[in-house]
Design a protein that fits this description.
With about 280 residues, the protein is an alpha+beta fold. The chain has helices at about 1-25, 35-45, 50-65, 70-90, 105-125, 130-145, 150-165, 170-190, 205-215, 245-255; strands at about 195-200, 220-225, 235-245, 260-270. It has a four-stranded antiparallel β-sheet with strand order 2-3-1-4. The mean pLDDT is about 85.
Amino acid sequence: MKTIKKYLNVIVGCLIIAIAIDFIIIPNNLLTFGISGIATLIYYLNGVNVGINLLIMNIIGISISSFFVNKERIKEYILPSFLIPILIYVLSFFTNSFILELPEMLIVIIVAAFLISFGYSLIYKQGYSTSVVFLLEDVIGKITKFHSKIYSWLFDCIILTASLVLFGYYVTLYSLIVIVISKYMITKTRFGINDSKVFYIITSKEKEVKHFILHDLKYELTVLDVKGGFSKKKNEILLSVIDSKDYYKFKEGIKIIDPDAFIAICDTYDVVNKKSF
C-alpha cells in the first residue's frame, strides 16, 4: 500500500508539472528553471515539442552522469526524468482544445509557480529527484573537486540571459519571478516551514535565565559544557527550542535579565522527541 501511494504521488507530481508547463508556462511565453527551462527555450526557437527536448536532454544528462555518479543516486532521477517529458508531450495535444485563460500576468505567475513547486515537492518527498541539473552538479563537482549548488543557478542565469536577448525585458522579468518563487516554495514545502527557533545562550546570570525559560515560558532546556577556542575559558551554553510565536518574548526576556548575554538564534524546520533531553 505504501509503495502504491509513493508511486501515485510521483505520478501526480509529474502530471502537475506537465500541466503547468503546457497550459500556463508555454501559452504565456514564460520560462522555468533547470533543464525544463532550456527545453522550453529551445521550443520557442525551433518549435520542437518541449517534451521531446526535455526527454533527449534528460537521457544525455543521465548517460553522462552514469560514468561519475553512484548508480543508486541515478535511480532517483530515472522515473521522473522520463515521466515528465512524456506527460508534457501527451498533454500538448490538448492545449488547443482546452485553453486556460487567467486575467492578469501576476495571477499567471503565482499559479505557475505554485503548481510547479507543488509538483516537485510531491516528487521530492517520495525520495525521487527530477532536475538532471543536480546530477550534472555532482559530475562537475567530481571533475573540478569543487562541490557547490551554485551550478543550478548558473543554468538559470544562462536561461534568463538568453531570454533577455531573444524575447526582451518583460518575458525575462516574469520568468525570473516564476523561477525565484518556485525554488523558494519547493524548499519550503520540501523541508517545512521554520515554525521553531533554536536559542544558544551564554550568560553570567544562568540561574535567572534558566528560571525564566523553565518556569516563566515553560520551555525545556539543555546545558552544554563548552570551552572557548581562543580564550580557553570554560562556559555553559543553554540550548532551548521554542515556538516561533514566542521568539520576541524569549529574546527580549533574556536581554532584560542579562543585557550582555550572548544569544545565537537558528531556524529549525522540525523537532522530533522535543522533551527527550
